[in-house]
Write a structure and sequence with these properties.
Blueprint: H1 7-42, H2 44-57, H3 61-68, H4 74-86, H5 94-100, H6 106-118, H7 123-171, H8 186-210, H9 229-250, H10 255-302, H11 307-315, H12 320-336, H13 340-345, H14 357-372, H15 376-429, H16 432-435, H17 443-470, H18 474-505
Length: 506
């Protein structure tokens, strides 16, 4: 087929654009798949711990597999599929499930193989085998998390240098752009700072999040707990109007839209997600002391005290939310004459408002221990030790990542806005309006353009930092972004005002 004059270039552009779009789509699909896999692997220690927990009380592979299949998330669902297919056969489903992860996560394969082997081990060796299973998955998760932190250090530094530090530094040299023959007009500044740089930060952040090897999923909370739209929208409007009024009387007129949008949207996100974050904080506080609770109960059960009485006795030795929860469960046992498990996770149970799967697993373990008697005391104590180690692995992993993400989060909320506001004020003080190519932007236009970039940067970097540490969760990310937007807005506007006053007095 003949191609007319001028068509070859159009044809090349079309083919190139189509190929680029296809590669972008393929990369997006791979990124989503990698993100799901990292989130899936983050639940591996919980799944193994549930299998080990059940095996200590009921040493059969079928019971352990079924209990572990109750783990929230894709990993638990996949195990449930294997358990369902193995039903009616001599297999438990643990072996086939472990084999499917042999190459992708060897530690999960080895640990579940040990759990299955423990069902056939002599009683004296079973506990040692289960201990090795837990050590294997915890060591494997710790190694992957450490590798993730090391792998992310270089790219995150590049994001900080080329996406934040360099662009903000260039604001201060805009006055010299005209003398150097560079056409630094307002449209060019807006295009670079408010479109190109934010898009680059979003793409880079997405790549970093997608390639994180392990992501520990947050505690799931029912979205109905969130604030009603009328409340957070109304609060946002009122606070935004107040911020606009304060900016109008205290700061230059051009700061009004930035103050309105930055603080208004930030407050809306905070009010919207705060109830979910509060529930999750209470659940995390309970999980932090859950090992102590199991240890206290287990010690008493080993001494011959019934589980029901051990729960009531231990409540007085526990502080905070753990003490309240165990006291509530003990009270329900006395008043309703129900079992330990129902007192915790039954209708209106002590854990009704605390959506912690670990606490639920512990409650089921206590219910099984009530039927097993004194021998279950040691299993409770050993489970407490494993929970301690599991939390330690997660805490260490987040601390390793925090060394990478702390710079990003601090830059988003404080350093970036501070430098941005100061450089805008300094650019004005040295005559940016006259130097930027004849028809260059006024201070107001420059301040708004850089201010929009500062707010976008605050949202993007905070989302990245939160996602790397806690996984992608709408409530947690939204809440942290809301705080960052409020902080960044105030820091940027104060920096502009203070720097202008100082430079004007010199």
């Amino acid at each position: 087929m003949a191609i007319a004059t001028g068509e070859p270039s159009l044809f090349v552009v079309a083919v190139g654009g189509g190929y680029g779009a296809a590669m972008f789509a393929r990369g997006g699909v791979l990124a989503v798949a990698n993100a799901r896999r990292s989130r899936t692997l983050g639940t591996a220690p919980t799944l193994v711990s549930r299998a080990v927990l059940r095996m200590r009380i009921t040493p059969t592979a079928e019971e352990a597999a079924g209990f572990a299949a109750g783990t929230d998330g894709r990993l638990g669902n996949r195990l449930a599929d294997h358990v369902g297919r193995a039903r009616g056969t001599p297999n438990s489903g643990l072996g086939s499930f472990a084999e499917s992860w042999r190459k992708r996560f060897p530690a999960l394969y080895r640990s579940l193989t040990l759990v299955e082997a423990a069902s056939n081990a002599p009683a004296g060796e079973r506990d040692r085998t289960l201990d090795r299973a837990m050590d294997t998955i915890l060591d494997g998760t710790r190694d992957r998390a450490r590798e993730a932190a090391n792998a992310l250090r270089g790219p995150s530094t590049a994001v900080y240098a080329f996406g934040v530090l360099l662009p903000l530094a260039l604001v201060s040299v805009l006055p010299a752009a005209g003398a150097a023959g560079v056409d630094a007009t307002l449209p060019a500044i807006v295009a670079v700072y408010d479109f190109i740089l934010p898009i680059g930060l979003v793409c880079t952040s997405g790549w970093l999040l997608a390639n994180r090897p392990v992501a520990f999923p947050p505690i799931p909370v029912d979205s109905e707990v969130a604030t009603h739209p009328a409340l957070y929208v109304g609060t946002s409007i009122v606070v935004g109007a107040g911020s606009a009024a304060a900016s109008h009387f205290l700061l230059p007129e051009w700061t009004v839209p930035l103050a309105t949008v930055g603080v208004g949207v930030g407050v809306a996100l905070i009010v919207r997600h705060r109830p979910i974050v509060a529930v999750r904080e209470r659940a995390e506080e309970l999980e932090a002391t859950l090992s102590d609770a199991l240890y206290l109960v287990g010690r008493r059960v080993s001494e011959g005290i019934a589980v029901e009485q051990a729960v009531a006795d231990s409540a007085g030795e526990l502080d905070g939310i753990a003490g309240e929860t165990f006291e509530a469960a003990a009270k329900r046992q006395r008043q309703l004459r129900i079992g330990v498990e129902a007192a915790f996770i039954g209708e209106y149970g002590a854990l009704e408002d605390l959506p912690s799967q670990r606490a639920e697993s512990a409650a089921r373990l206590l219910g099984m221990a009530a039927g097993a008697g004194t021998p279950a005391g040691r299993a409770l104590v050993e489970t407490a030790d494993h929970l301690d180690e599991l939390r330690r692995v997660e805490r260490d992993a987040r601390q390793d990542l925090s060394r990478v993400t702390s710079t990003l989060s601090n830059t988003a909320a404080f350093f970036g806005p501070l430098v941005g506001g100061a450089t805008v004020a300094l650019a004005d003080s040295v005559g940016a309006t006259d130097a930027l190519g004849g028809s260059s932007p006024e201070t107001a236009s420059l301040g708004i353009a850089v201010g929009v970039y500062v707010l976008l940067m605050a949202a993007i970097l905070t989302g990245l930092s939160t996602g790397l540490q806690h996984g992608i969760d709408r409530a947690t990310v939204g809440y942290r972004i809301g705080i960052a937007l409020c902080t960044a807005t105030v820091t940027y506007l104060v920096a502009v005002s203070v720097t202008s006053a100082v430079s004007g007095g010199l």
